[in-house]
Design a protein that fits this description.
D-Maltodextrin-Binding Protein, domain 2; 2 domains; single chain; 6-stranded mixed beta sheet; alpha/beta; 454 residues; globular
């Protein structure tokens, strides 16, 4: 079983990072050669450095990352006395992205760097600039659904760093217990639960369009279900072949929003309610379901800590119980540029292995807490497991029951999605109209990105 989660140590920075996701130091050490990028592993197969070596690691400049890196380096250097690690910090956002790309393009990247997985990783031209880590000893323990977010057809380039989040439905366990309901595996079962909840005088589904980003979950969290019927959707969507409006599986998320609106299953103030108000409604049992990312449990801890044990989680149900599974917002990655060679490459690989080791993972837990599963099978278990997090584990324990969210396997996410889903949820657009409008939104973004075939 994958690692468990602590009630304490969930930071507000997780919430900020998650909402950004769903919407859309020192120089390299002297021992690091500055050279034009070349492919392949140049370590010569050795697993030990031949002489003391210094490597440089690039990480972000958030407060938690600084503390984490300090403790990680202390433990790593204690185990590897011939390796010294220097740390350079980079800013977040576009400035940080540009710095990473510039360092790679000029051959001046640090020996190891922490960075996003998914579409931002693909924008780095990994085949040209990164070391393939497919054959490293830790690779076999990585959750299979992580690999598409750090891979190309030519190699696997990243190790998982940090935790993943689930996209689905937070629910009030007390309401379920009082009404004798079971967690639904299909959409029909979900709608039957909603009918029983409404009859009991509780709002079946919480929507909070005062924070428009929260309106997207029924579309985004349905991607695992899309892949069960259209397994090539991400590639075909990126290549201007598959469309939301013409793919019956893809349009279904918009249809769910429309169906729930037409059934009058939303809270009466859904058009203006905010994210925090939605969390409070869920915690108080005034609403039974809130489609959301699991990071929101940290907000429950902040605004309604006494209710946190009453909040559970399940994956967004789809057409079939046989293919029920979880859409996952994946962890970030740790990478090695192929300008790292010789003893520096050996040391860099040791460092990456330490990051994903049980000891390295425990250091992450101690500093950051846990807001999702670690994506390596032998990660340590933390105490005080919250129900909503515990509910994620069965999906990771079942083969084929997790899929990365679309934004991790395609660079295209139309910027107007949250406005479009609000329009469906408020009855302004039908599902079919919304899907067609979103396809046009996607087209504009793909053209701005200069993607082939658009």
């Amino acid at each position: 079983m994958f690692s468990q989660f602590k009630k304490r140590g969930l930071f507000a920075t997780a919430a900020i990072a998650a909402s950004a996701l769903i919407l859309s130091g020192c120089a390299a050490s002297e021992e690091t050669p500055t050279a034009q990028p070349t492919s392949g592993d140049t370590s010569g197969g050795s697993t030990e450095v031949s002489a003391p070596v210094t490597i440089s690691v690039l990480g972000d400049n958030t407060e938690n990352q600084v503390v984490y890196m300090d403790r990680l380096l202390e433990a790593f250097e204690a185990q590897n006395p011939d390796i010294t690690v220097e740390v350079e910090l980079r800013p977040g956002g576009a400035d940080g992205d540009n710095l990473v790309k510039t360092k790679l393009a000029t051959g001046e990247m640090n020996d190891v760097f922490f960075y996003n997985s998914g579409s931002l990783f693909q924008a780095l031209n990994p085949d040209e600039y990164l070391v393939d880590l497919s054959n490293e000893p830790w690779a076999e323990s990585v959750v299979e659904s992580f690999w598409p977010t750090v891979s190309t057809a030519n190699g696997k380039y990243g190790a998982p760093y940090g935790t993943a989040m689930g996209g689905g439905v937070l629910y009030n366990k007390d309401v379920y217990a009082e009404l004798g309901l079971e967690v639904p595996l299909t959409w029909d079962e979900f709608m039957a639960n909603n009918a029983a909840i409404k009859a009991a005088g509780v709002d079946p589904v919480i929507q909070t369009y005062g924070d428009t980003w929260t309106s997207q979950l029924f579309v985004l969290a349905d991607f695992h279900n899309v892949l069960q019927e259209s397994p090539n959707f991400a590639e075909e969507y990126t290549n201007n072949i598959a469309k939301y409006a013409s793919d019956p599986a893809a349009v279904r998320g918009f249809e769910y929003l429309e169906e729930l609106h037409d059934a009058d299953y939303y809270n009466s103030d859904y058009a203006s309610a905010t994210f925090t108000e939605g969390i409070l409604k869920l915690a108080a049992g005034e609403g039974a379901h809130y489609p959301m990312l699991t990071f929101a449990v940290s907000t429950v801890l902040e605004v309604a800590p006494d209710a946190v044990d009453s909040i559970g989680f399940f994956a967004q149900p789809g057409p079939s119980a046989d293919t029920n599974g979880l859409t996952v917002w994946m962890a970030n990655g740790v990478y090695i540029p192929n300008t790292t060679t010789g003893d520096a490459l050996i040391a860099a690989k040791k460092f990456v292995e330490f990051v994903v080791s049980p000891e390295g993972t425990q250091i992450y837990i101690d500093v950051n807490g846990q807001t999702g599963p670690f994506l390596v099978a032998d990660a340590p278990e933390a105490a005080d497991l919250l129900p909503a997090f515990a509910d994620m584990f069965p999906y990771f324990d079942r083969e084929g029951a997790t899929s990365p969210a679309l934004e991790f396997v395609s660079p295209i996410k139309g910027p107007a999605l949250e406005q479009i889903t609000v329009a469906v949820g408020t009855g302004q657009y039908s599902a079919e109209e919304a899907a067609a409008i979103y396809d046009e939104d996607v087209k504009k973004q793909a053209q701005q990105l200069g993607l082939d075939g658009w």
